[in-house]
Amino acid sequence: MPAGAERGRAGPGGGGGGGGGGGRAGPRGWRSPAAAPCRCAMKKPDGKVVLLGDMNVGKTSLLHRYMERRFQDTVSTVGGAFYLKQWGPYNISIWDTAGREQFHGLGSMYCRGAAAVILTYDVNSLQSLMELEDKFLALTDSASADCIFAIVGNKVDLTDDCALPPDENRPEKSVASCGAKVRKQVRAEDAIALYKKILKYKMLDEKDVPAAEKMCFETSAKTGYKVDYLFETVFEMVVPIIVRQKAEGPPQTVDITDYKPAKRTKSGCCA
Protein backbone atom coordinates (compact mmCIF):
# COMPACT_ATOMS: atom_id res chain seq x y z
CA MET A 1 0.00 0.00 0.00
CA PRO A 2 1.40 3.46 -0.85
CA ALA A 3 2.62 5.83 1.84
CA GLY A 4 -0.07 8.07 3.23
CA ALA A 5 -2.80 5.45 2.84
CA GLU A 6 -4.67 3.53 5.49
CA ARG A 7 -7.41 0.99 5.13
CA GLY A 8 -10.39 0.10 7.28
CA ARG A 9 -13.65 -1.76 7.17
CA ALA A 10 -17.18 -1.44 8.45
CA GLY A 11 -19.65 -4.28 8.29
CA PRO A 12 -23.43 -4.02 8.14
CA GLY A 13 -23.52 -2.89 11.75
CA GLY A 14 -20.56 -0.53 11.42
CA GLY A 15 -20.69 3.22 11.46
CA GLY A 16 -20.30 5.45 8.44
CA GLY A 17 -17.90 7.95 9.94
CA GLY A 18 -14.86 6.60 8.15
CA GLY A 19 -12.17 7.76 10.48
CA GLY A 20 -12.21 6.37 13.96
CA GLY A 21 -11.69 2.69 13.33
CA GLY A 22 -9.11 0.96 15.43
CA GLY A 23 -8.45 -2.74 15.23
CA ARG A 24 -5.67 -5.19 14.64
CA ALA A 25 -3.33 -4.29 11.80
CA GLY A 26 -3.34 -7.13 9.31
CA PRO A 27 -1.90 -7.58 5.82
CA ARG A 28 -1.36 -4.27 4.04
CA GLY A 29 -2.71 -2.26 6.96
CA TRP A 30 -6.17 -3.86 6.99
CA ARG A 31 -7.94 -3.05 10.25
CA SER A 32 -10.52 -5.43 11.65
CA PRO A 33 -13.38 -3.70 13.49
CA ALA A 34 -13.75 -6.68 15.85
CA ALA A 35 -10.10 -6.80 16.92
CA ALA A 36 -8.38 -5.16 19.86
CA PRO A 37 -7.62 -1.42 19.50
CA CYS A 38 -4.41 -0.54 17.68
CA ARG A 39 -1.85 1.76 19.29
CA CYS A 40 -1.61 3.86 16.15
CA ALA A 41 -5.07 5.41 15.87
CA MET A 42 -6.32 6.07 12.38
CA LYS A 43 -6.29 9.70 11.33
CA LYS A 44 -9.58 11.53 11.26
CA PRO A 45 -10.76 12.21 7.69
CA ASP A 46 -11.34 15.78 6.57
CA GLY A 47 -13.65 14.73 3.74
CA LYS A 48 -15.37 11.67 2.36
CA VAL A 49 -15.71 10.19 -1.14
CA VAL A 50 -18.15 7.31 -1.70
CA LEU A 51 -18.34 4.79 -4.55
CA LEU A 52 -21.85 3.61 -5.42
CA GLY A 53 -23.03 1.16 -8.06
CA ASP A 54 -24.44 -2.28 -8.73
CA MET A 55 -22.49 -5.41 -7.83
CA ASN A 56 -19.86 -6.59 -10.32
CA VAL A 57 -19.26 -3.18 -11.90
CA GLY A 58 -15.74 -3.07 -10.42
CA LYS A 59 -15.92 -0.54 -7.56
CA THR A 60 -13.58 -2.53 -5.32
CA SER A 61 -11.19 -3.21 -8.20
CA LEU A 62 -11.00 0.51 -9.03
CA LEU A 63 -10.12 1.27 -5.43
CA HIS A 64 -7.49 -1.48 -5.30
CA ARG A 65 -5.96 -0.27 -8.55
CA TYR A 66 -5.64 3.29 -7.29
CA MET A 67 -4.61 2.67 -3.69
CA GLU A 68 -2.59 -0.54 -4.00
CA ARG A 69 -1.40 -0.13 -7.62
CA ARG A 70 -2.58 -3.58 -8.64
CA PHE A 71 -5.58 -5.39 -10.08
CA GLN A 72 -7.22 -8.10 -8.07
CA ASP A 73 -10.30 -10.21 -8.73
CA THR A 74 -12.44 -9.56 -5.69
CA VAL A 75 -15.40 -10.98 -3.86
CA SER A 76 -18.50 -8.86 -3.32
CA THR A 77 -18.13 -6.18 -0.68
CA VAL A 78 -20.19 -6.78 2.46
CA GLY A 79 -21.36 -3.58 4.12
CA GLY A 80 -18.60 -1.10 3.39
CA ALA A 81 -14.82 -0.71 3.47
CA PHE A 82 -12.66 2.35 3.20
CA TYR A 83 -9.19 3.67 2.53
CA LEU A 84 -7.74 6.87 3.97
CA LYS A 85 -5.79 8.88 1.41
CA GLN A 86 -3.61 11.86 2.24
CA TRP A 87 -4.07 14.58 -0.37
CA GLY A 88 -1.93 17.60 0.39
CA PRO A 89 -2.61 18.59 4.01
CA TYR A 90 -5.95 16.76 4.05
CA ASN A 91 -7.03 13.19 4.75
CA ILE A 92 -9.81 11.91 2.50
CA SER A 93 -11.66 8.68 3.20
CA ILE A 94 -12.73 6.70 0.13
CA TRP A 95 -15.64 4.38 0.81
CA ASP A 96 -16.36 1.23 -1.16
CA THR A 97 -19.99 0.15 -0.70
CA ALA A 98 -21.85 -3.07 -1.33
CA GLY A 99 -23.88 -3.39 -4.52
CA ARG A 100 -25.89 -6.36 -3.28
CA GLU A 101 -29.59 -5.77 -2.78
CA GLN A 102 -29.56 -6.87 0.88
CA PHE A 103 -27.01 -4.18 1.76
CA HIS A 104 -28.57 -1.51 -0.42
CA GLY A 105 -29.99 0.50 2.47
CA LEU A 106 -26.54 0.97 4.01
CA GLY A 107 -25.52 3.19 1.10
CA SER A 108 -27.43 6.14 2.53
CA MET A 109 -25.55 5.80 5.82
CA TYR A 110 -22.17 5.71 4.09
CA CYS A 111 -23.12 8.73 1.93
CA ARG A 112 -23.92 10.89 4.94
CA GLY A 113 -21.95 14.11 4.65
CA ALA A 114 -20.01 12.93 1.58
CA ALA A 115 -18.17 15.62 -0.37
CA ALA A 116 -18.19 13.51 -3.55
CA VAL A 117 -20.01 10.46 -4.88
CA ILE A 118 -18.57 8.30 -7.67
CA LEU A 119 -21.44 6.51 -9.42
CA THR A 120 -19.98 3.47 -11.16
CA TYR A 121 -21.35 1.32 -13.98
CA ASP A 122 -20.12 -1.32 -16.41
CA VAL A 123 -19.72 0.04 -19.95
CA ASN A 124 -20.87 -3.36 -21.22
CA SER A 125 -24.14 -3.26 -19.25
CA LEU A 126 -26.74 -0.60 -19.97
CA GLN A 127 -28.75 -1.97 -17.05
CA SER A 128 -25.96 -1.06 -14.63
CA LEU A 129 -26.16 2.57 -15.80
CA MET A 130 -29.94 2.66 -15.51
CA GLU A 131 -29.79 1.30 -11.97
CA LEU A 132 -27.63 4.23 -10.87
CA GLU A 133 -30.66 6.44 -11.35
CA ASP A 134 -33.30 3.91 -10.28
CA LYS A 135 -31.64 2.45 -7.17
CA PHE A 136 -28.66 4.51 -6.07
CA LEU A 137 -29.33 8.20 -6.71
CA ALA A 138 -31.79 8.51 -3.81
CA LEU A 139 -29.10 7.20 -1.44
CA THR A 140 -27.14 10.41 -2.02
CA ASP A 141 -29.81 12.54 -0.33
CA SER A 142 -27.75 12.33 2.86
CA ALA A 143 -24.60 13.66 1.17
CA SER A 144 -23.26 17.17 1.66
CA ALA A 145 -25.35 19.92 0.07
CA ASP A 146 -22.41 20.87 -2.17
CA CYS A 147 -21.50 17.25 -3.00
CA ILE A 148 -20.00 16.71 -6.45
CA PHE A 149 -20.85 13.73 -8.65
CA ALA A 150 -18.72 11.69 -11.03
CA ILE A 151 -20.14 9.11 -13.45
CA VAL A 152 -17.66 6.31 -14.15
CA GLY A 153 -17.93 3.57 -16.77
CA ASN A 154 -15.54 0.75 -15.87
CA LYS A 155 -14.28 -2.32 -17.78
CA VAL A 156 -13.41 -0.57 -21.05
CA ASP A 157 -10.68 -3.19 -21.50
CA LEU A 158 -13.43 -5.69 -22.37
CA THR A 159 -14.86 -3.64 -25.23
CA ASP A 160 -14.10 -3.77 -28.94
CA ASP A 161 -12.82 -0.18 -28.84
CA CYS A 162 -9.20 -0.61 -29.94
CA ALA A 163 -8.40 3.10 -29.84
CA LEU A 164 -7.53 3.04 -26.15
CA PRO A 165 -4.01 4.30 -25.36
CA PRO A 166 -1.57 2.21 -23.32
CA ASP A 167 -1.94 1.82 -19.59
CA GLU A 168 -0.94 5.17 -18.10
CA ASN A 169 0.76 3.50 -15.12
CA ARG A 170 2.62 0.88 -17.16
CA PRO A 171 3.19 2.44 -20.59
CA GLU A 172 5.11 -0.58 -21.83
CA LYS A 173 1.90 -2.61 -21.66
CA SER A 174 -0.97 -1.74 -23.96
CA VAL A 175 -4.57 -2.84 -23.74
CA ALA A 176 -5.03 -6.39 -24.99
CA SER A 177 -5.84 -7.09 -28.62
CA CYS A 178 -9.39 -6.95 -29.88
CA GLY A 179 -9.98 -10.68 -29.84
CA ALA A 180 -12.99 -11.86 -27.83
CA LYS A 181 -14.14 -8.31 -27.14
CA VAL A 182 -17.75 -7.22 -26.77
CA ARG A 183 -19.46 -4.16 -28.17
CA LYS A 184 -19.79 -1.36 -25.66
CA GLN A 185 -23.42 -0.96 -24.60
CA VAL A 186 -23.16 2.44 -22.92
CA ARG A 187 -22.13 5.49 -24.93
CA ALA A 188 -20.49 8.57 -23.45
CA GLU A 189 -23.67 10.47 -24.34
CA ASP A 190 -25.67 8.14 -22.08
CA ALA A 191 -23.45 8.94 -19.10
CA ILE A 192 -23.67 12.67 -19.80
CA ALA A 193 -27.46 12.42 -19.95
CA LEU A 194 -27.47 10.74 -16.53
CA TYR A 195 -25.24 13.46 -15.10
CA LYS A 196 -27.71 16.09 -16.25
CA LYS A 197 -30.57 14.12 -14.70
CA ILE A 198 -28.67 14.14 -11.41
CA LEU A 199 -28.35 17.92 -11.58
CA LYS A 200 -32.08 18.19 -12.16
CA TYR A 201 -32.79 15.79 -9.28
CA LYS A 202 -30.56 17.87 -7.00
CA MET A 203 -32.06 21.11 -8.38
CA LEU A 204 -28.63 22.38 -9.40
CA ASP A 205 -27.90 24.80 -12.20
CA GLU A 206 -25.40 23.56 -14.80
CA LYS A 207 -23.60 26.91 -14.57
CA ASP A 208 -22.79 26.30 -10.90
CA VAL A 209 -21.27 22.80 -11.16
CA PRO A 210 -18.47 21.12 -13.13
CA ALA A 211 -19.33 20.44 -16.77
CA ALA A 212 -20.77 17.01 -17.59
CA GLU A 213 -17.92 16.25 -19.99
CA LYS A 214 -15.43 16.78 -17.16
CA MET A 215 -17.27 14.55 -14.68
CA CYS A 216 -17.97 11.51 -16.88
CA PHE A 217 -15.11 9.01 -17.11
CA GLU A 218 -14.34 5.66 -18.71
CA THR A 219 -11.81 3.49 -16.90
CA SER A 220 -10.27 0.05 -16.69
CA ALA A 221 -9.38 -1.21 -13.23
CA LYS A 222 -7.62 -4.13 -14.90
CA THR A 223 -5.15 -2.07 -16.95
CA GLY A 224 -5.19 1.12 -14.88
CA TYR A 225 -6.55 3.18 -17.78
CA LYS A 226 -7.69 6.61 -16.49
CA VAL A 227 -8.00 5.39 -12.88
CA ASP A 228 -5.50 7.89 -11.46
CA TYR A 229 -7.07 10.66 -13.52
CA LEU A 230 -10.51 9.84 -12.10
CA PHE A 231 -9.56 9.94 -8.42
CA GLU A 232 -7.18 12.89 -8.72
CA THR A 233 -9.80 14.96 -10.56
CA VAL A 234 -12.31 14.21 -7.81
CA PHE A 235 -9.82 15.00 -5.03
CA GLU A 236 -8.93 18.37 -6.55
CA MET A 237 -12.64 19.26 -6.54
CA VAL A 238 -13.18 17.98 -3.00
CA VAL A 239 -10.44 20.15 -1.46
CA PRO A 240 -12.34 23.47 -1.87
CA ILE A 241 -15.36 21.82 -0.23
CA ILE A 242 -13.21 20.75 2.72
CA VAL A 243 -11.74 24.26 3.03
CA ARG A 244 -15.19 25.83 2.92
CA GLN A 245 -16.60 23.42 5.51
CA LYS A 246 -13.68 24.05 7.87
CA ALA A 247 -14.16 27.80 7.52
CA GLU A 248 -17.84 27.49 8.33
CA GLY A 249 -17.11 25.36 11.39
CA PRO A 250 -19.21 22.48 12.71
CA PRO A 251 -22.94 22.48 11.92
CA GLN A 252 -25.01 24.63 14.24
CA THR A 253 -27.00 22.34 16.52
CA VAL A 254 -29.14 22.81 19.58
CA ASP A 255 -28.40 20.73 22.68
CA ILE A 256 -31.79 19.87 24.10
CA THR A 257 -30.34 17.93 27.05
CA ASP A 258 -29.73 21.14 29.01
CA TYR A 259 -33.07 22.62 28.14
CA LYS A 260 -35.10 23.68 31.19
CA PRO A 261 -38.64 24.94 30.69
CA ALA A 262 -39.47 28.27 32.24
CA LYS A 263 -41.24 28.08 35.58
CA ARG A 264 -44.91 28.86 35.46
CA THR A 265 -46.15 31.63 37.73
CA LYS A 266 -49.59 31.86 39.18
CA SER A 267 -51.94 34.28 37.59
CA GLY A 268 -52.22 37.58 39.38
CA CYS A 269 -55.84 38.03 38.38
CA CYS A 270 -58.41 38.45 41.13
CA ALA A 271 -61.42 36.18 41.40
Task: Give your account of this protein's structure.
The protein has helices at 59-68, 106-111, 126-136, 188-201, 212-215, 227-248; strands at residues 5-10, 47-52, 80-87, 90-97, 116-122, 148-154, 216-218. Helices cover 25% and strands 17% of the residues. With 271 residues, it is α/β, with parallel strands linked by helices. It has one domain: P-loop containing nucleotide triphosphate hydrolases (Rossmann fold, 3-Layer(aba) Sandwich). Residues 11-40, 170-177 and 252-259 have low confidence and may be disordered. Strands 1-3-4-2-5-6-7 form a 7-stranded mixed beta sheet, with helices on both faces. One of its GO terms (cellular component) is phagocytic vesicle membrane. Residues 1-30 are annotated as: Disordered.
From the structure above, extract its key features.
25% helix, alpha/beta, 271 residues, golgi apparatus, 7 strands, Rossmann fold, hydrolase, 7-stranded mixed sheet, membrane
Write the layout of secondary structure elements.
Elements lengths: L4 E6 L36 E6 L6 H10 L11 E8 L2 E8 L8 H6 L4 E7 L3 H11 L11 E7 L33 H14 L10 H4 E3 L8 H22 L23
Parallel strand pairs: 2-4, 2-5, 5-6, 6-7
Antiparallel strand pairs: 1-3, 3-4
Family: Belongs to the small GTPase superfamily. Rab family.
Subcellular location: Cytoplasmic vesicle membrane; Cytoplasmic vesicle, Phagosome membrane; Golgi apparatus
EC number: 3.6.5.2
